[in-house]
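I have been asked to look over a protein record a colleague put together. This is what I was given:
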Amino acid sequence: MRRSHILVGLTFCSIIFLSVQLYFLSNVVGRKDSEVNTNNKKNMKQQAYENIKTFLATCNSHKIPVVLIDPLVLASIVNVSEKLSEKTCRFLCTGDRLTTFGAINNNWGPEWQDIVSEMTKKGFSTTMFTTRDPRLVTVDSVSSPSVPAHVLLHRQDHTIHLVIFYERPGNYLWHAPTRWRRRSPQTGEIRLKFGDSAGAYDKMEIVGVTIDNIAMLVPRNPSVFLSQIPHSKFLECNHKRAKDFYAKYPRDSTPEAVLFRKEARDVLTRGKIVLDQLGVRFWMSSGTCLGWFRQCDIIPYGMDVDLGIWIKDYNPKLIAWFKMSGFHLEHLFGKVSDSFQLSFVYGSVKLDLFFFYEEADHMWNGGTQAKTGGKFKYYFPKFTLCWTEFLELKIQIPCETRDYIEANYGKNWFEPVKKWDWKKSPPNVVKIGQWNKDELDDVIQMFDVH
């Protein structure tokens, strides 16, 4: 009996001792860990601030303008009415381990080597990625010299990413892709905010501001720049494929083909201006998209220009704006809720606007046979939009271009087909019936363009 009392007492004391230990660990040691983490965050924010300050001072000393394009920082200063030059580090000290700047190639010459050398002396580890200059790549010359693409400057767990932008003939800014990643046991993986793919952006106006007492350059309208980031993916035309195509099928250099290419580019340019002014998204479709994908050029025997538009982006002002720009409406097929299609003529070239409808697992556009009232559907796998450069125009195409082309032209898209029946030739076309007789006057409208 006495022994059992002793065991109970010892057990009770052990429980009390363990409870005290647990309390100590959770409240004292935990508090210290929390204080250490807080101090680490403060140190990291301060380090980011010092790195940015050193980097900008170095660029300024070499008279190289760089622009703050970091999405996190730009988003924090949008719609801020008070002064950005506070004594406390409010905007730059976000705790992010990566801060992004941009430089325009026109202002980025041999001096970059001096900047990198000086930053290395100041304790930064530096990494530079190069790329082939896409502005010098053509069907006749598929190689080009290397040019700087991305520069990474790292010091004490904070990285500055400098993106090199190049002005392209289409009057836009372009940057190359890079697959850089940094991983450390303490901080995990850091991914770049620019570079998962090549990117295309409208030219931007730059203004000087002071943020957290550091003078720097930013886009005049940060919101516009930020809105472009999610939709900036760029695909280069495959000049090697085009060269192979023309090696097998020599380029048509007859006067008729040369004239059509010239007039088709003019129609594409004018159509782009109208749609851009209306804020309507569009992309090269059908034969125009095939020409870009296969031969980086207009297909001379196509005799028209084809564009795709989401039906949800249709603007009722579209027809009137095209007419004001010198286009003549040739026909209107379907209705906005079903199989809508417009065809315009400018000079001797037809411009087809195909409106696309999105379903749960596919997309489609409609076709109408004017003589019979027959209805057709062209089915496409779901796709997103990317930018490209075509005939010195910045324009969009389906990112999943091969899938899009194969849906419309089949696996043999590389082979030229000059006899094409839009009702039978495409592998993705299906006749789905007829328009009702009582709506024919509305869904089949033909106009005299002469």
Summary: The longest strand covers residues 158-168. Confidence is low (pLDDT under 50) at residues 28-40. The CA atoms of residues 373 and 436 lie 8 Å apart.
